[in-house]
Amino acid sequence: MALLVFGGSKHDVWLSAIISVIMGLMGCYVILTLALRYPSQTLIQYSQQIVGTWLGKILGLIYICFFIMSAAVAVRDFSELILNYTIDQVPLSVFIAVMIVMAAYAIFKGLSTIGRLAELIVPITFLAIIFGLLGNIPNAVFLPSFPLIHDLKYLISEAMLQLPYFGLCVSLLFLIPMLHEKTGAKKTLLWSFAIAGAVAISVAVIVVAVLGPYGTVAINYPFFLTFQQITFLPSVSRFDVLFIFVWISISFITITLSYFIALTSIQQLFKTKTYRKFIIPLGLVIAFIAVYAFPSFHHFKQFLRLERFGLIAIPLEFIIPSIILVISYFKQTHRHQSRGRVHG
Fold it and tell me: Which of 95, 164, 304, 335 could be cross-linked to 79 through a Cys-Cys bond (beta carbons 3.0 to 4.6 Å apart)?
């Protein structure tokens, strides 16, 4: 995402990033606890048992809308990068249409196809990011320092800006039931998020170290610009192509999974036999939102701010799952007490 750089923390970027990752991991722990409490059902299904049929259905509709929006935001984000830094003569709608068609094809082939694609893309993506980090070490002109320049309250507010993106792990509430092997899933996934968090911290630090503590706030896609600074091989001048590959890969996985979750949630909520008949209509909806919901890149960036996108994402990603988890524990305790009184 365009804002995932922690640039506002300036010299204290390292601590702001760490705080954000810790908060994200705590949220992921809650999400995984809830998901594995009902390992054969998605949030769409067990929310109706926990909070009642009608409220559960309303929550289901809200989450469907959220994942449709997430897919639209991801595809617009990808398209803006391409238009701003690579091919600026092609209409925005073309990039959006191509990505939606590719995602629709992958979804039509099934979740296993998406999983195999992720198995191929994720390791290459991590290697490319590590290359970007190591390749920029000679270009680092600033190192995060101690003591802190900002107070803790400011750093927490900056860390909150990144939470909506770490909170996309809420997708596990819909994907865990589709795993064939759930033993050890919680530990494995938490370690995966911890590694991803360590990478995010490293990216935040290297971006500020290379571009400067005051230059990152107003820059779009600053990690892309750091790739352009890599010059340790004089015969190769376009290392930013690696970043483009990383961005396309991450965007494609994000779009496809959000698209897929929205489709399967519609199937479960309305109890249809298959989700495939909704692939084309929903793809058109996602494309329409991506093109017309944001008149310009400026409007798109403004939407991604904490007081807009964050006010939508954080409650759905962290607060509502936490409330549902607490209610489920309360109901289970109440049932056990009731059974104890009956048998007593």
Answer: 95
